[in-house]
């Protein structure tokens, strides 16, 4: 009779733990299962020494499930808190980046409002002068390459002509 009552209490408790586990996070569920298994083994050992290994296993399983679930729930809360913190941090960083971009835009507007047309014209002329200098240098380099290529071509033509002269002179001589 005593075993039957303990069994009924255990089954009820296991049912509550199982139903509660449906809402619990993965660590709480895993903790309950591991705790129940560990508790059952330890309870069976202790129960065996006191004369009832089965009752010890049941009591140990229940105690282990409760403790394991509590530890797992704490881990689930820690993970959830960490994710929440990371999410808040990302949102804060995004807000800061938007604020920095807006501040940069405002600085550009302010700077532009203080610049006179003569300064813009002078900057344009400096840019055009630099571009013209670049174009001149590139043209000079291209012309130098062309002259170098022409010298190579003329040297090849000279060598070919000299070889033909030797070939013709060798046949007549």
Strand segment count: 0
First-last Cα distance: 136 Å
User: Describe the biggest sheet?
Assistant: none
Percent of residues in beta strands: under 5%
Overall average pLDDT: 84
- State the oligomer: single chain
Given as residue ranges, the uncertain stretches (5+ residues, pLDDT < 50) are none
The H-and-E topology, N to C, reads as HHHH
Principal-axes shape call: elongated
Count of alpha/pi helices: 4
Rg over CA atoms: 45 Å
Structural class estimated from helices and strands: mainly alpha
Describe the structure.
This protein has 173 residues and is an all-alpha fold. Helix content is 95%, strand content 0%.
Brief account:
Helices cover 95% and strands 0% of the residues. By secondary structure, the chain is mainly α.
